[in-house]
Amino acid sequence: MDDEKSKVTDKASEIAKNIWLAGLGAYGKAVEDAQGRLEKALEPPKLFRDLVKAGTALEEDAKGSTIAARHSVEERINRVRENFHNQRPARIEDLAALHKKVDQLTRKVDRLSKALAEQRSNSTSTGKAATRTKKPVATASPARGGASKKSPPRAKAAAKKRKV
Q: DSSP strand E in 28-149: where?
């Protein structure tokens, strides 16, 4: 029995020793963690300086991009202004001539629509296609610039310019 007691005592001593060592290990680990945190706590000025340096670099990049973008936009605006200033301003006579042409074309389209409607009604009433009884309406050819004989001289010059 003494042998058994000594085995149990040895086993209990070993367990107690392991508990003690585990406690020491936990204490040592806690001290190391505390020292690491203390070192990190003293490091923020370095970390702050690094962050400031990185922020400065990003700000410079952003300024460069902004300047380039602003320059590009200003170039485009200047080109649009130049194109606008190079345009010939519309004159009242030119606008009146355009209105007259639009009115003429509207009347021609109305006549053609009416003739087409009559042709359809004739073909549906007789049951066969109606023959064409009217001459086709003459229209201004786009190849001639669409200028009529009564156009002001300036409109004819503009038409010739468009042809070229």
A: none
